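Example record

The entry below shows one chain as it appears in the dataset: sequence first, then structure tokens.
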Amino acid sequence: MDNFAYTQAASTKEATTTKETDKQAAFIGGGTTLLDIMKSNIEHHTLLIDINKLALLGIDNAATGLRIGALERMSDVGEHPQVVQNYPVISQALLASASPQLRNMASMGGNLLQKTRCGYYRDVAFPCNKRVPGSGCPAQTGDNRTLAILGGSPSCIATHPSDLAVALVALEAKLTLESPKGTTRTVPLADFYKLPGSTPHIENHLAPGELITAITVPAAAHARKSHYLKVRDRASYAYALTSAAVGLDVQGGIIRSARVALGGVGTVPWRVPAVEKALVGKAPTEENFRAAAALVVRDAAPREHNKFKVELAQRTLVRALLEVVA
């Protein structure tokens, strides 16, 4: 791990301005991902800007929706009574993430920016286009069991690691971003992440110095009737092989609205509007769920070791939908 300087920001303006000025600087909140990849010599930062004193807290549930400060800890949000009651898919995704110790430390904003668990990215002995642009992607023909079957490119098939992001994309959450000039903008989370294409090292649309300050989620009937199901190799501290975040509004025995996103299968949190459209107007039966789930993988491009995800993703989605209407 390289030596680095440390400073504690007193204001959002100070934090973003410092970050914009020093291209080798990084924000640090909980530090659960950042310090890990610095110790592994994956990223090299000469300055860490501690943002924990900034006024970026709060879990506010209103009639119009939910607002969460970016520095709220994952465990606090996951166990908050209003989140559990009105947005169960968010609570379940958070409590299925990492380990209790990590959830007590990790911030909401940091979770959305965490790095992939692709073994080739995490091991500097191997080339990786995401870590060193233009160096290659051995995952294409190597050990790709846990990697993406949707949204990949010849340059990268790394899966997006966040459970939380899958739940938030399903519920059409938005991020508030603050720039070094003090201006703010709101970005749908679904538009925040970039597909790898030929530039997998550019993972999102953050401008230089910009900081995530809050997350907002609109209130909706399908949010109150929602569920997150995660399939993984072990019960704790394991990333998703496949996951599904679903929400349904069922009235009079008919699905009036549906929200569906998948994790563990895409290079970004994978919203599937075609499945949502197929569910609306139908009865909430297992037969209809299976028919809609088949649409999930019609664009899948599995590699040698992750072909099982094509079937597993469909089964995961059907189980999650059945849980909602149980």
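Notes for this example: The chain has 14 helices and twelve strands. The mean pLDDT is 97.
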